[in-house]
Every structure is written in C-alpha cells, then in structure tokens.
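Below sits our specimen:

——
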Amino acid sequence: DQIRLRAARLGLADAPVSLAAATNIRDILAALDSADAADVAIIDSIQTMYVDTLDSAPGTVSQVRTCAQELIRVAKRRGQTMILVGARHQGRHHRRTARARAHGRRRALF
C-alpha cells in the first residue's frame, strides 16, 4: 500500500510496474520464471529472503549467498536484468562505534 501511494504522489500510478511481496525464494523464482515476467527485477531486501532447505535463519551468510545464486541463475537463463539490494550489518565494530558516539567520542574509520 505504501508503494502504491508513493507511485500515485509521483504520478506513476499507471506505470507498467508489477510488485510482489514474498520471502521464500521458491515463490520468488516462480514469479521470475513465469512467461509474463519482467525484463528487469529489483530484489529488495535480499537479507529477508530464505531457502527452506537450509536450517539457518534469513540474513545469514549461507541464506543470502544461496538466494543470490538462485536469483542470478534464473536471471542469466532468462536474460533478465537483476538488481539485488541488501543492508549491510557491521557487527561488533558497529556496536563499539555507536557506543563511542553515544559517549561523545569521535573515531575515524578507514
């Protein structure tokens, strides 16, 4: 609904764009592999997707890697352009710098 409202505000309500909401990679691959699939697909956010044959949680390295490999395989076979969007989590280093900022200290990261 949020996407539809934004499209209406931008005057793009009638644009030839299809939206889908899914997190299971099988459902996503089925949509991308259909006869009426788009030439360009934007996958946002890949870290929320999962392969049900893996025991790990969505967002883990193995899940993201496997999902990306499956999406790329289908895109190459069909000649689709695929844009993968994901968030980067910085782990322990991020928490330390966030704490330092909260205490007013500055750090330079290179």
Observations:
- Confidence is low (pLDDT under 50) at residues 105-110.
- The chain is about 40% helix and 10% strand.
- Helices lie at 2-9, 25-32, 61-78, 91-102.
